[in-house]
Amino acid sequence: MIRLGFILTAYIFLLISFTPISLAHDGVVHDTPEEAQEHELESTSSAKVEMEKVEYELPYPGMLPDNPLYFLKTARDAIVKFLISDSLKEAEFNILTANKRAYAALLLSEKGNHELTLETISKSNNYLHEAVVSLGKAREKKMEIGVALDNAQKSVKKHRDVFSQQIMPNTPEKMKKDLEREIKRLEDIEKAVSSLASK
Fold first, then answer.
1. Alpha-carbon distance 5 to 2, whole Å?
2. Going by fewer Cβ within 10 Å, which terminus of the chain is more open, N or C?
3. Residues 40, 30: Cα–Cα separation, whole Å
4. CA distances (Å), 32 to each of 115, 161, 169, in order?
5. CA–CA separation, 162 and 124 (whole Å)
6. Degrees (nearest 5) of the Cα angle 89, 92, 95?
């Protein structure tokens, strides 16, 4: 009985602390005139389209992965995810968590913690991939996934913008290939999202 009471109390606490907070933070890295000219010379017309700013806000991530208590946050997320049985809600949770990880990666990059930045980007991509899988399951169950699918599409574009235009310039040369690999993963996720949208 005491154990059940503890579980219910922990669950209520997790739900309260899970409330997403949105923060308008562009984190734009402004190019120097020389860098802007270099980007223009290197870019194809399709790449120029990708460089356009995506009007989509990422939710404030709260505690960052470099915090010693971050494991409590990951444990909370794992419990919340475990308690979700609805495919659509699971997709929405995965998108939200991926967005928080993307924003956290940007903040870590600004702090110069490049290894943890890449690790956080990888986890963000993992959550987006899981969101696509959950959206596919929701569609199979004849659920209305339009809003979540639109959110997923915007998320992928925003992540690509943040990773390639804001984090990449701050990334050491020796780590840029790893970041490019994660951006390629993101492109594959975007194709999967587009495939769902076209059905």
1. 5
2. N
3. 14
4. 26, 18, 12
5. 12
6. 150
Helix 87-110 vs helix 70-83: crossing angle, to nearest 10:
160
Residues 6+ apart with CB under 8 A from 174: none
Q: How far apart (Å, rounded) are the C-alpha atoms in residues 89 and 76?
A: 16
- Measuring CA to CA, how many Å separate 127 from each of 32, 36, 59? 34, 32, 15
Which has more pLDDT, 11 or 25?
Answer: 11
Residue 72 near residue 31 (C-beta atoms within 8 A): no
Q: Quickly tell me which residue has 């639109």 as its tokens.
A: 150
Backbone angles phi, psi at 22, to 5 degrees: -100, 135
**In the structure encoding, which two tokens stand for residue 92, read together?**
């929405």
Q: Against a cut of 0.85, is the pTM above it?
A: no
Burial of 118 (0-12, 13-18, 19+ CB in 10 A): buried
Q: Is 22 helix (H, G, I), strand (E, B) or coil?
A: strand
Q: Containing H/E element for 190? A: helix 173-197
- 75-114, pLDDT tens digit by residue? 999 999 999 999 999 999 999 999 999 999 999 999 999 9
- Count Cβ atoms below 10 Å from residue 154 Cβ, excluding itself: 17
Two tokens, residue 171: 């990334």
Residue 131 near residue 116 (C-beta atoms within 8 A): no
